[in-house]
Design goal:
By secondary structure, the chain is mainly alpha-helical. The chain has 11 helices and no strands.
Length: 177
Amino acid sequence: TDYREFLDSNDFSVYELEILQTYVIGKIKIFDEAFLYFKAFAPYAKEWSVVDSLCQKFIIAKKEQEKVYNYLITLSNENDEFLQRIVAVVLLSHFLNDVYIDRVLNVLFDLKHNGYYTKMAIAWAVATVMAKYPEKALTYLSEMHLDRWVHNKAIQKIKESFRVTDKHKKLVEALKR
């Protein structure tokens, strides 16, 4: 009945408690409080599905995008696979809009952790950009020199997407390295 008591006492001893933590944080209606709990839990999210749930449930991020974006920039400088995944997943979930799209692409390019889960999140984010901003995504894939694996994985994810047109899928096929 008291979400604060739960969030403050949760010991994350099992996977289900970690996932529940993400859902409860996502339901908080007061931005500053939700953001505080998000930041406190982020370093403990060390499994891809926990990270993705935390990020996607953090819908209140849209209310204070600049504060959240600045926090993401600090995380992007951390040499941690899952913190960098948080950056990519929050960006693809809540920042693909006209105000942030160019900044999002630059941040994605700057994420450099070699961990599989960071690389997959970047590829997923680029594929999501393609669905919403195809011309920007095409330019990004043509001009930015992503890690080869990430570049090709992004193209694969674009080709598998139901939200990308056949025309755009053909264009990205030519960009495969």
